[in-house]
Amino acid sequence: MRRIKLVLAYDGTNYCGWQFQSNGVTIEQVLNEALTALLGEPVAVLGASRTDSGVHALGNVAVFDTESRMAADKICLALNQRLPDDIRALSSEEVAPDWHPRKQNSVKTYEYRILNRKVSIPTQRLYAYFCYFPLDVEKMRLAAEYLVGEHDFRSFCSPRGQSEETVRTVYSLDICREGDMIVIRVSGNGFLYNMVRIMAGTLMKIGMGVYPPEHIEEILDARDRKAAGPTAPAKGLTLMEIRYEKELRERISACSRDWSYELIQREIPFKKKAYLIIERCEERDFDRLLMRVTHQAMRNGAREVFVSDRSSGIMEGKSYGYYVFHHDYDIIRMAKTADASSAPYVPGNVLFEKLTEEEIPLYCGLVNRVFCDVPGSASLVPEQVESWMREKGRTLLLLRLKNETAGFLDFSVGEEEAEIHYVGILPDFRRKGAGGEALRYVESAAAAQDVRRVSLLAASTNLPAGKLYERAGFQAEETVSRWYKTTWD
What we know:
This protein is of the alpha+beta class. It has four domains: 94 residues, Alpha-Beta Plaits (2-Layer Sandwich), CATH 3.30.70.580; 137 residues, Alpha-Beta Plaits; 74 residues, no CATH class; 147 residues, Gcn5-related N-acetyltransferase (GNAT) (Aminopeptidase). The strands form three sheets. The protein has an eleven-stranded mixed β-sheet, sandwiched between helices. α3 packs across α4.
């Protein structure tokens, strides 16, 4: 059995939308019938976007399974011979058997076209909404800015199609005028039922002067369909393209009036770990945010998700949909007041060498190797190290012991405090005093600038490091963050 992916274009005027219905002909029905006749076997397509009646497409995506041995790239050509003139397969290719067009990370782009003039033009009647009232495009653009980002779009969703989860991310929303034609182009990670058409209807009301641009904020806050403008007619809407992610994004961040968080995914491909840091979240949104983002990480391949909840909303052992979180470890700030008599540092067995640009990959490899098994540790990438090297006052060093690379040290000295960011010793060089020498090196560097306080962060579960710091005189001061973990069976 093979799975074939189709990219489709169609004029939706004569169809009752994408999805099969008993009361009219649909795009899905026509495709199933044509493919069944072509391949000589029952075929049922799975569509990426179930467009409404009258909506057009230039880049919808569908897949189907077949036993046919016909070359994948030739299927679209043969299929077009059996399709009506208002439906075309633009391309066809074989994909993985489990590839699903609605379960992949993607960016969908729609355009809504408005013919804005005193008299309509017959040749545009099927592909644009005619509006004779003059629209202020600049006001519409100002309003569109409030819709960009991650929001709860419940106000922009028709109730009968309302999903349980109404949070979506709009990546861009551009509005331009080309003569008498106004084009609203919006891209996002997904759209609710009638969402784009309600956005278009609301923006037109703003263009007419019914609402000021900033009224969009009130509409979003209301989370009520009645607060938004009308649903614009279907004929002005076209699905332009669906672009699928080829590589997993390392970081996903969102900041709105209601929440702020960051999802770190760069360890998913090789460690199956993801990290969610919730900076703040309104109480009414917390459970949904935790479930939604955790599920996204799991769907992207994570088997463990660590959560640092700085909004203090998470409850250990509570069921958040499919997930239950348990306290895993704390990040503790430890500090000491350096003894002036300890400076200057007298070199011992360890040689401290400043990191060069050529050694950045080596440095990353050392850090990732040392912290690989430390709970909650995140992997280091060269781009991060490069940015740290450019920071004023930040020092990155390689530790050499008997002409061999033994570990690494990363610290900075401020006006009142020296902070150790990373210190690590490779397994073969532990218990030989290298860790203690690294701590004394920082203490000496701080004292040389008349700075006596030295601090660092330590995981509560990293017991060997904790004992080293305590022997060096560091004491626990505060819990900086608490980390919870859930796993996927």
